[in-house]
Amino acid sequence: TLIFDVLTFTLTTGDEEWRPSAVETIEGIRELKKALPKVKTSLGVSNVSFGISPNARRVLNSVFLHHCVEAGLDLAMVHPAEVTPYPEIPEDERKLTNDLVFNEREDALERFIEHFESKGEEEEDEAADPTAGMEPEEALHWHILRRKKEGVEDWIDRCNEKIGAVPTLNQVLLPAMKEVGDKFGAGELILPFVLQSAEVMKRAVARLENYLEKMEGHTKGKVVIATVFGDVHDIGKSLVNTILTNNGYTVFDLGKQVPVDTIISAAEEHDADAIGLSALLVSTSKQMPICVGELHNRGLDFPVLVGGAAINRDFGSRMLYPGGKESDETYEPGVFYCKDAFQGLDTMDALVDDDARKALVEKTRANAATLRDKPVKSDDGPPVTDDSVRSKASTEVPVPEPPFWGVRELEIDLQEVYPHLDRHVLFKLHWGGRGNKGEAWRKLVEGDGEEEGFQPRLERMWAEQDYLQPRVKLGYFPCNSDGNELVVFDPEDRDREVCRLSFPRQPKHDRICLADFYRPLNDEGVRDVVALQGVTVGSEVTDLMERLEQEGEFAEQLYTHGLGVQSAEGLAEWLHSRVRSDLGIDPDQGRRYSWGYPACPEQSEHEKVWELLELNSIGMYLSDGYAVMPEQSTVAIITHHPQAVYFGMKSGFIPEERTPDEVIAGTERGGELPPEHDPQEEAGVEPQREGDEVPA
Predict the structure, then answer these.
(1) Which of 276, 412, 502, 585 could pair with 589 in a Cys bridge, judged by C-beta atoms 3.0 to 4.6 Å apart?
(2) Which residue ranges form the domains of the chain, and what is each CATH number?
């Protein structure tokens, strides 16, 4: 990469020659980026402000840097202490500084210097502390909105002394967090900033609890939350915990893979105001209606909030009828779909208010009834186990020869994995960049002023981390399809059947079954080849996430979780790339499927893969619900078939010709500035493959 180091001169000398120098630097950057868009630019920012007072210098550096970045500056050399975010500079000082930078007044420098000199040393010191002179309520509001932890405890003490503990919570802290949520909803804040505000809130509430002890009424309500049985993904649930807790609710977080009976028992034990359920996978989301049905059968009255990438609003509405289409009975307390943590907060706020609750329940029932009354096209297709008709996937694809047969653990160079990280999903979904476009997206990725950009953060975390412990196992096995099953043979005795992997078949469409992408059994005994892989980055990253949550470092937990998930996915992508190379096929031919998604939904099949690959030897194991553990791990089956596609039971067709897979390395998704469009999946979750479906 070529980096052009542009130049600026000192704007504050009073020399007539340098009056237009700052604006010429800005325009120079813009013209350079226009002529050579792929090169980088750097600038020593503070050269513009030599010779003036520290406070004046900070403002001039900040305003100048802001305009340089807008013009296309990539790399800024400036001390962070000498920079203030542009929106946080007082409007009058921005105006004075812009006049100077853009050479818009003859007396711009004179007015600029006079302004800061008139403030005097004492006022400059006060200006360094924006809360100086504020009332405690205003200062606490400022700390939460500006994400500043230091000093918040002292303001809590002063606010408690002035208005009392409960008013401090209800009239100061909670409204401030609500404003943070409103700004997030309006797209003014990204998720990591929300979590940083939550960190300030947690510190403030921890101090306030010294005054709230033995006082009743300082909780808005009690919520039991859990990730359903069989599902090991809980970052979304943890986010709900953070948002609810820091908005006045008492949350009992039961963790992940929680059986229905445990959830209900906890709700009864804590006399909960509501239950919250989360699921990532289509297969595990089926636990949600089971829970609602059990609550209904027991005559319990806990409202249920549901959310997660695997479900949508219609799925939540259907749960309101525990008996399904055959019964008109509804679960009276209500089932409420929440697309994110803040909608969960809004729902809880309504549920603990009698009038709002009544209106919400009535609206939810009306929506569910409307959905129920919609005409439904009858499903007259055969069951997914039917194998009487096969898809048109070719059975004559040449069989490539793998470099070895059987199973091996492979050595890993993490630097080889790095290009396979899906930065589009990491930055948009896991790190909360969804909704940002254009210049806002570029600033978010590359950095803006004192805020570290996603790309430099990724580079720093990747270089500094010591908690990713990658291990992989890869197996090549002879195989053939037999109806809806893939028959796996012993590599050393190709006539000996080892196991059969079972898959569902589309009832309609092209009648695709994953087994169709392998040669069928025949009298000639020609065997195909299947690759099975298991990858993990170990359990240390999960341990670190739990520790960060306990310490109230919510934003860092979010960043660490995202890196852990995408490291495991990147490791799987790297290994798949190696398989393609091993087999001598095109780098985008074939597909990789993981159990739990529609093409292979039955997670109990993991047991067969475990026996084939002996994954316990690299620290991987299965939960009671057959989920892959540690959490940041994946297992997959790979087909080399050129017509292979991602599909669901109600979506997907066999292409006439080879359809290339969407790879990461060497594409925009793995580049330093990923595409600005938002992926389809919900934020904070693992992306599902094309063709995945929400359960009916």
Answers:
(1) 585
(2) 3-128 (3.20.20.20), 136-212 (1.10.1240.10), 221-373 (3.40.50.280), 406-434+469-670 (3.10.196.10)
Residue from 381, 245, 262, 368 nearest 313 by CA? 368
Which neighbouring-strand residues pair with 335? 304
- Give per-residue pLDDT as tens, 82-116: 677 787 788 889 999 999 999 999 889 988 988 88
CB 21 within 8 A of CB 29: no
For 123, residues 6+ apart whose C-beta sits below 8 A from its C-beta are: none
Residue 332 sits at φ, ψ, to 5 deg, of -55, -40
Cα dihedral 409, 415, 420, 423, rounded to 10, equals 140
Residue entry with tokens 């169709």: 516
Residue 598 pLDDT: 87
- What's 516's DSSP letter? G
pTM: 0.69
Cα–Cα dist 684/548, whole Å: 17
Rounded to the nearest 10°, the torsion over CA 250, 253, 254, 259 is 90
Residue type, 684: G
Task: Output the six-digit token pair for 432.
Answer: 């909360």
Q: By CB neighbour count within 10 A (0-12 exposed, 13-18 middle, 19+ buried), where does 629 fall?
A: middle
Q: Residue 684 has what pLDDT?
A: 30
Asked if 577 and 531 touch (Cβ cutoff 8 Å), the reply is no
Q: Which of 437, 451, 447 is nearest to 75 (CA)?
A: 447
Distance CA 627, CA 217 (A): 40
* Contact residues for 130 (Cβ-Cβ < 8 A; gap 6+): 142, 146
Per-residue pLDDT reduced to its tens digit, 218-258: 688 999 999 998 877 777 888 888 889 888 899 999 988 89
Which token pair is 214? 């033995």
Q: Would you state the torsion angle of the CA atoms of residues 348, 351, 352, 358, taken in this order, to the nearest 10 degrees?
A: 160
Amino acid letter, residue 106: E
Q: Cα(627)–Cα(606) distance, rounded to whole angstroms?
A: 8
Q: CA quadruple 544, 233, 622, 474: dihedral positive or negative?
A: negative
Question: What does the alpha-carbon distance between residue 483 and residue 504 come to, in Å, rounded to a whole number?
Answer: 10
Whether 518 and 639 have beta carbons less than 8 Å apart is answered as yes
Residues 417-474: tens digit of each pLDDT = 999 999 999 999 899 898 888 888 998 999 887 789 999 999 999 999 999 999 999 9
Q: How far apart are CA 544 and CA 469, in angstroms?
A: 13
51: phi > 0 → left, psi -120 to 50 → alpha, else beta; which? left
DSSP codes, 483-542: TTEEEEEETTEEEEEEEEEE--B-SSTT--BGGGGSPBP-TT---EEEEEEEEE--SHHH
In angstroms, rounded to a whole number, what is the distance separating the alpha carbons of residues 54 and 50?
A: 10
